[in-house]
């Protein structure tokens, strides 16, 4: 038996159920990027808002690439299970906030229709870093990106998030409707400001008046999102179905912790997410920078160093005392001093405790993906801040060297793994140069990642070369002991 509206009552003993009539929901939100993260984060806050009686905020989820999520969720009336796993076991909750799911390549027109619907007030995004089609080092739109080239030539059949947003805003303007708010929920620096700049750059190429209208009337609040959501496995599906009593083809697994900090500047109405635990603020950037540098910076470092050393999951890697000590010192001594936020010691301890959660089985390879798009905001910005202040950053440099070694596609035991990154081909070609100095120089010359400044910082270049040499000669775990306390 499948999870759906008819079978829902039978799951009641094990799971919390949506406390509202889903047939009465209006399509107030269109979400681009219907992945597990959205379904374990924003869709859950929205589910709580709906349960409080404001039914304007049903979510139309859009997959920009594949049909698998729609194919799994449509037969379930878009219901799915959230499995929250912590030290006290597992809690199940069925989420009902999704009212429809669309597959953009099958029907871009249907996506545009949802976005220009008068009931739609918010278009939120979790399209991952590479989904912005931008240059991660400079945060500018890549007009040579194939999807952007395509979308400028085919306005009514866009492929990219930016292409969809600009076309839908154009259609709303023509129809005399106000713009929707664009709410980026990706781990980008100043994700709202970045989205705004990319949308305006694209709109400028389409029509200068449109770009002006968006810049005057549009809203792009910055937001900080935080919840660890590993990819759901077949094992998870089987275990959740067994507890639920019905089959759920597409459940999501997550941790108890969840945080959402949103700037309160919307173009029109918005869900009262603060009543569901979100924090509405004037400025989200301090939270966002702290999260990107502390959490995501250590996550990526652990992903590269831990994978090389042969660990599979985050909790396995963090249980290694040397790796844990390294990360703690990196956070305390090198990252925290670049941030303006109180309580960073507690934040660090909380992060380490979250990483230790054994029930999540978060695979390091999942986090290691797309390093070229992640490193600039997770590690390199912090390195620049340290260098500018004349302060040491040996551990951050060690993590960058770990990424370079990771790009070779083989761990220290010789086990091969695929390197998944939009720039994989050129990165791997450079990473495989046998001479360490030449290899580091070739990688640092990639301006999309390192900008045009870092290759000129001699102390940084020398440190990365030393670290890479040490990793090669001694292996990660021995080499990081040399950095000491
Ligand atoms: C992770 C993030 O996959 C990754 O790159 O670092 O998805 C991380 O789990 C979240 O940002 C936590 O909020």
Automatic annotation (TrEMBL):
Ranges for domain Mannitol dehydrogenase C-terminal: 285-470
Recorded superkingdom: Bacteria
Residue ranges of domain Mannitol dehydrogenase N-terminal in the record: 28-274
InterPro entries in the cross-refs: 6-PGluconate_DH-like_C_sf, 6PGD_dom2, Mannitol_DH, Mannitol_DH/Oxidoreductase, Mannitol_DH_C, Mannitol_DH_N, NAD(P)-bd_dom_sf
Protein name stated in the entry: Dioxygenase
Keywords, in A-Z order: Dioxygenase, Oxidoreductase
Molecular function terms, GO-annotated: dioxygenase activity
